[in-house]
Amino acid sequence: QVQLVESGGGLVQAGGSLKLSCVASGRTFSSYRMGWFRQAPGKDREFVAAIRWSGGGTSTADSVKDRFAISRDNAKNTVYLQMNHLKPEDTAVYYCSAGGGTYWGKGTLVTVSS
Question: Averaged over 3-24, what is the pLDDT?
Answer without folding.
Answer: 96
